[in-house]
Structures are given as structure tokens and as C-alpha cells.
Amino acid sequence: MQESILGILAGEGRVADDEIAARLxxxxxxxxxxxxxxxxxxxxxxxxxxxxxxxxxxxxxxxxILVEGTPQHGVGFNDLAAHIARFDEVHSLHLTSGTADxxxxxxxxxxxxxxxxVAEKLAPSPGVTSTSTSFVLxxxxxxxxxIHETPSSQRLAVSP
Amino acid sequence: MTLKRTTQSRISRTVQDLKPSxxxxxxxxxxxxxxxxxxxxxxxxxxxxxRVCDAVIESLRNGATSYTSNLGMEELRVEVAQYxxxxxxxxxxxxxxxxxxxxVSEAVDLAMRALLDPGDDFxxxxxxxxxxxxxxxxAHGLPITVPTHAEDEFRLTADExxxxxxxxxxxxxxxxxxxxxxxxxxxxxxxxxxxxxxxxDLVVISDEVYAELTYDGTHTSxxxxxxxxxxxxxxNGFSKADAMTGWRVGYACGPxxxxxxxxxxxxxxxMCVPIMGQIAAIEALRRGExxxxxxxxxxxxxxxxxxNGLNRIGLDCFEPMGAFYAFPSVRSTGLTSEQFAKTLLTDxxxxxxxxxxxxxxxxxxxxxxxxxxxSDLREALARTETFLERLDAGEVQPDE
Lengths: 160, 400
Known about the structure:
The structure holds 2 protein chains of 2 kinds.
Chain A: H1 2-12, H2 17-24, H3 28-40, E1 61-69, H4 78-85, E2 90-95, E3 102-108, H5 111-122, E4 128-135, E5 141-142, E6 145-146
Helix pairs in contact in A: 2-3
Chain B: H1 13-16, H2 22-31, E1 37-38, H3 50-61, H4 74-88, E2 98-101, H5 103-115, E3 121-126, H6 132-138, E4 142-147, H7 158-164, E5 169-175, H8 187-199, E6 203-207, E7 232-237, E8 250-253, H9 256-269, H10 275-287, H11 289-312, E9 325-326, H12 337-348, E10 350-351, E11 353-354, E12 366-369, H13 374-392
Parallel strand pairs in B: 1-10, 3-4, 3-5, 5-6, 6-7
Antiparallel strand pairs in B: 2-8, 7-8, 9-12, 11-12
């Protein structure tokens, strides 16, 4: 049941309890209880809309920044990551395998704002040895969703 | 030039007698309208999974544009054999017992022509898929309809089957899960049919194109029942569960004698299934399981929402356990299937298919496909509810 509920919420986000209940053939109370439990356990950490900002008047740009750093005894990259994660500009942050150590997604109003953040805050952070910034120029798919319209279905209206 | 025919027409007697599908007429009606929510569609609303399309694009780059073996590509037949063995424990020899066909449709046509002599009977359920009867007729056979009933969820019963058999009955052709009713025959129901088939020495043609779309429990193939593999032709394909209707790939598996006869005709008339479709099918069998599971889970949710909705607004509907069809009764409205479907369409722009398009026993019901988005299904339910209220209040008169 948990997996089915999460499947619906992670795919669509905004679905009422009774709608989930109808689809899964269980009661609304069961759905509400399961969701509350998953929220309390931190399995569900939040709800938000997926926005294609390029279609709005809001200025918003993203950059992927590969950060190399110096690991510290006992904590590895945790302290450095916790420091970087506190900046509001940081949208998401992962410890990754590969050439870099941390993968930081930074959000800003324009390229200059991001460049300033990297130059003034991120690169000089103690423990950071190098950064490599890639600005997002165009988004094709986000959170599992294609951004641009796919061709409409050719299905016939009635078929055997 | 003189046409050597007794009638005026150039068209053969057999084809002159062939009736156009009742669905066709409805299709023409729907096509002339805007803002229609169509529940008349017998195909998935999902596109073919991209991994399948990608495999075909790659094969084209590599120059795979030739004919294949008449039987179909060996790799595909081997995959089909492994799939069926894994699913049902039934073993087919890829070299002699599997034929790749242009959808299940070609397989039905070939099977009928392979098995029937003029004047032979073949049993088909009523209601059933629209092409079964015509395929029997085109093979110069006589389709004998076996009535099925709402109280049995439109499953075939031994009594009705035995009662329909004559000296000239060669076999039975049915689909499980059923199009149009969504009904599923479980092992115990199939066992009844198998007993009659063995007793009357019938060939059973089992169209299992909706097998993967079985909810709550697994599909049983009648070919897996004791003593049935040697008299069963199992038909399946990729259209429904793999969302591959346009690729036109199906297969027939059964006794080598029947497959050989079908293959001889197939070699003369079709040569082989287009190679692109066969490559798509190989990819679907090798790596399509997750895609199938995702789509089945989605259909299952829609099924619950839609069938509960139908019952809530007053159209009685048994719980369909397979395919993506619901087959509610419209008798409470006092309208015939056709009146209901036409009036609902003109008044509320919701398209469903009249049950009698699938046989006389479908009268009093309509076929609704729930292979549409949940929001469309909800809108269709809301419009149908409005329609029922308007009908009740005398605000709408049935179309003739």
C-alpha cells in the first residue's frame, strides 16, 4: 500500500486522499493514516509544484557545480557539505562518485548572481579545492517529466 | 468481357454476405463531433515504450530492412517460447510450433482457413470480438454463437457450449480476458471448457492478447490444462500489454500440424511480418517487463475508479478482472444499447460502443474502454450522470 500511495504522490503530487483511496480500493482513512505516518517518518519530505520557469516572467537560472574538496578525518565531506547546503542559493547537493566530490545545483536570478555566489561564497569555502560550473541553458526533462510537448496521440476515436 | 457470376455484382457471394462491423458506423458518427470523450477506443493510451522504439531505430541504422523467415525471426520465436514456458509451463518448439503473425488478427484468419472446410461449424462466444464471426465466414464456415450471460459475468459455461455443438463443429474460438466484457475465465472456468473440448474433440483457439492485463491474480492459459496443449492454438501479441498496436505483431503457438498449415498460407499471402515489428517485439519480450507492470498498475487504478463510478451513478457493472473494458448494463434506462450509446453521444459527447455490436447477447450493455486518463474518465462519468438525470427528468429523448 505504501509503495502504491508513494507512486501516485511522487508522480502527481496533488491528489486528494479520497481520490487515492478510489484508485487503490482502500478507505480514505487508511490513505490519510498512511500518509501522515510517512510524513512523520520523513519518508515524504514535502510537496511542491514542478514549474517550467522559462514560460513565466520570473527570472530563474540554474547551474550544476562540481566541487572537489579535502575530506576531513572522521567526517569525510559531511562538514563541508553541511556548510554549503546552508546557503539559500543551493537548490540541491549530493556527495557523488566520479571525478568531483560534491555535486551542487545552484539557483539564481541570472548568470551573474550565480557567478558571484561561486566566486564569493562557494569557491573560497574552507576545504574546497576546485569548482567547475555548468550553467543550464535549456531543460528537456525535469523530475521525470518531458518539458516539451510530445506529439499528440493518433488513436482513432472508436476501434474494435 | 463477361463476368462469370450469377448475380450482377463483381463481388464474391461470401463477401457480399459479410456485414460491416457495427463499430464502424459508430466511428463515423463520433468523427463528425468535437469535444467528445471517447471510451470507444480498443487500444492503450500509452505510447510504445521508448526503449522499444529505440531498438528499432538502431536496427534501421544497422540496415535491418529485409524479409525474415516465413515463421518469423528465430530470435523472436525463441523469446516467445521462453516467455510462455515461464508464464504457463507450456513448451513450444520454436522451429515448428510458433508462427509470428500480423497481430492476433492474422492468426485468427489463418487458423480458420487452416481448420475449416465449407459448411463446418466453429463456436464463438456471444458477445465476442467483432472479427471472429467474419473470419469463420470468410473461411466458408458457419459461426455458431454460444450465448453467455451477465449473471455468469459473460463466461462460457459447459452447458451452453455442449448445447451448441453439432456433428460439424470443429472447434471453439474465444478470448480470455474478454473483449468486450473485461471478464476473466480462471482455471476452474477453463477446466469446464476443456472437458467439453476433449469430449467433443474440438480444437480450442484461445486469444490471450489481454493476458498480461489481468488484475488480482494471474492469467491461466487453457493450453496449460491437462491434455489441452495438443488441441489448443494459443494466440497472443504485443498490441495491448506492450502498447504496440501500430506495430502489428502477434503469434500463434500450437500443434505443429496446424502451425505448418497456417505457415503455408502465411508464406503465400503475407510472406512475413515486417521486420521492424519483430525487432520491437524482441525488445519488448527481453526488457519490457517493468514497462508492462507500470501500465498494468495504472490500468488497475483506472479500473477501480471507473467501475465504482459506473455503479455509483446507477449503471450496474460487474467487476471486470481483465483487459481494459467495462461492460455495464444500461437496462435500467429502458433504452436499447444503440439508443443509449447514440443519445449519450449526442446529448453529452461521451462515446461508448453498443454491446450488440459484439453479438446479440451484448444487448442491454455498452462497452466502455478505460484506457484513458483518470481525469477523462471522471469527466465521462460526470457527463454520463448528467445524462441519466436528464433522461429521468424527460429532458432528453432517445435517438432512434
